[in-house]
Amino acid sequence: MARAVPLFSGSKGNSYYIGSATEGVLIDAGRSCKQIENAMLANGLDMSSIGAVFITHEHTDHCSALRVLAKRYGFKVYSSLGTLNALRAGNKIEANADADVITDEVVIGNMRVQRIDTPHDAAESCCYRVTAPDGKSALIATDMGVMLPNVRTAAEQSDFVVLESNHDINMLKNGIYPYPLKQRILSNRGHLSNEACAKELVNLVEKGTLRLMLGHLSEENNTVPLAMSTSVDLLTSNGMKYKSDYSLDVAPSVSTTKTIIF
Ligand SMILES: [Zn+2]
Ligand SMILES: [Zn+2]
């Protein structure tokens, strides 16, 4: 059965395992190698199940474990060319690591991983859609200032979608972040707000993607209840019933037991 495990989510680190119980890929490697090992173990997954590691972009919360992880296990690393160059320039990956550029899609064992480009303030960011061995697919789409048509289409074609619900716009505007940082987050190359996420989820449920998860919540400018209610309220007002018409979860900042079977 296809499964997705959100090992870590948020500004302190992001990492998702997607595949089956014995064969999968890691999307991003934030936090530390030890923390990823512990989170895999806590979710009943063996490190030997990881066929490759895909990095969305070079921001620390997506690759801080990469250098040690790739060296310790010899994992193959994939990313866009811009991200790979940035990882190398930032010393976030060993010079002799087994790394390659994904331009469109690659096959890892019995799985397929597609690259979909995202608008974010990084060298060449993207997100990934993974088709598990049983044919079911999942998309992890975070770190993007706006929803572009290519990402929306990939989400509509997936069985399970993690979509960024980064901040409440009012909390961000009235919060303690310095003005330039607020502007960066709110820009088209920043992060998706609760409000923008909710609108996309209405479209996804209409199109038949019914397994949904909110990801990359800001610790400073969001709360789990607020992110959930923003999406659930808009879906409800569009006639879609929470838990009966669709499922919605929040990716925990640290997961010990959260496995989504899709
Ligand atoms: Zn991030
Ligand atoms: Zn980022």
Describe this structure in words.
31% of the residues lie in helices and 24% in strands. It has nine helices and 14 strands. It is an alpha/beta fold and 262 residues long. It is globular. It has a single domain, classed as Metallo-beta-lactamase, Chain A, CATH 3.60.15.10. The protein has a seven-stranded mixed β-sheet. A seven-stranded mixed β-sheet has the order 7-8-9-10-11-12-13. β8 and β9 form a beta hairpin. One zinc ion binds next to loops.
CATH class: Alpha Beta
User: What fold name goes in the CATH topology slot?
Assistant: Metallo-beta-lactamase, Chain A
| Sheet of most strands | 7 strands, mixed
Please provide the count of β strands. Answer: 14
Looking at how many chains there are and whether they match, the oligomeric state comes to single chain
Key words describing this protein structure:
binds zinc ion, 14 strands, alpha/beta, 24% strand, hydrolase, Metallo-beta-lactamase, Chain A, single chain
What's the layout of helices and strands?
Blueprint: E1 3-8, E2 15-19, E3 24-27, H1 33-42, E4 50-54, H2 60-63, H3 66-73, E5 77-79, H4 81-89, E6 99-101, E7 105-108, E8 111-117, E9 126-131, E10 137-141, H5 149-156, E11 160-164, H6 169-174, H7 179-186, H8 194-207, E12 211-215, H9 224-237, E13 247-250, E14 260-261
Parallel strand pairs: 3-4, 4-5, 5-6, 10-11, 11-12, 12-13
Antiparallel strand pairs: 1-2, 1-14, 2-3, 7-8, 8-9, 9-10
